[in-house]
Amino acid sequence: MSKNKLAEERINYLDYNSINGGFDELSKRIVDDLENVGYVVVQNFDVDVTNVEASGQLFLKISEMVGTPIPHAGNDTIIWDIKSNPKSDSLIKTYSEHSHEAQMHTDSQYSFYPEDYFGLLTLKKAECGGGISYLVSLKDLLDELRLLPNGEQIIDTLSNTDYPFIVPNVFKKSKVEGPEFNYGPILRDNEIRFRIDTFEKALNYKQGICDETQIDAYKKLKHIVLSTDKIKNFYLNENDLIFINNKTMLHGRGQFTDQSRHLLRIRINK
Ligand SMILES: [Fe+2]
């Protein structure tokens, strides 16, 4: 059996057609899995994916039963289109604007309170064979960190010292030139905030923004994130509705070239 096959069998799928109790049962199953597994891929969600407006409304309805949908930072939009946006001139692009690989990260890691969960509904998958999804749990990362000789010390540094998180231009609060930072630990109680590219941009922007112990702890975590064999990988298909716990899971996405790929995203707090 190939490694990919094995990985695919570990995915937490839920067939919408197996749900008899409608959205009541579905939302309970989703919340249960978000808390206990960290994510769930609901397959065959019953929407007409060619009707973006109607699909979005049903996605919103189930999201309202999972928690409280929240607007995306910087505007009042609850249902967010994820489409490649090559025209965006922002220096620090958000992952929803580009089509190259998005390394393992949490969403809104720079924000004062990142969303607890988010959902993605696939309306149009990438037909180019790209756009693979990746997931890994905080628990698996912590288990690997603890196997290191100074694992507990690394976890302590990641939990109890402040790191700089750079705020993407589109979400910046002030109009002042130059990057804006939010500071905080990478690990909190049952929570991780993580993104490699923007974090390393922050490190390079200001010398001494983190001390050696912090940088070493970050590098150990980064190495595990990039090398762990616990990463689950799978493709999202049309009518797949995935919900992810943004505090206990990292997610990523492979590069794609099909610019017609189209997902909807809703951010949700408990
Ligand atoms: Fe993301």
Instruction: Characterize the biggest β-sheet.
Output: 7 strands, mixed
Helix content: 25-40%
The helix/strand series, from N terminus to C terminus, equals HEHEHEEEEEHHEEEEHHEEEE
Count of DSSP H/I helices: 7
Question: For the record, what is the CATH homologous superfamily label of the largest domain?
Answer: Clavaminate synthase-like
| Rg value | 19 Å
CATH architecture label name of the largest domain? 4-Layer Sandwich
Topology-level CATH name of the largest domain: Double-stranded beta-helix
Tags for this model:
24% strand; 7 helices; 270 residues; globular; 7-stranded mixed β-sheet; 4-stranded antiparallel β-sheet; single chain; alpha+beta; 30% helix; 2 domains; Double-stranded beta-helix; binds fe (ii) ion
How would you sum up this structure, described in words?
By secondary structure, this protein is an alpha+beta fold. The protein has helices at 3-9, 22-36, 52-66, 138-146, 151-160, 196-205, 212-227; strands spanning 13-15, 39-43, 68-70, 80-82, 102-105, 117-124, 133-137, 163-167, 180-184, 187-188, 191-192, 232-234, 241-245, 249-253, 262-269. Strands 1, 2, 3, 4, 6, 13 and 15 form a seven-stranded mixed beta sheet that branches. α2 links the parallel β1 (13-15) and β2. The mean pLDDT is 90.
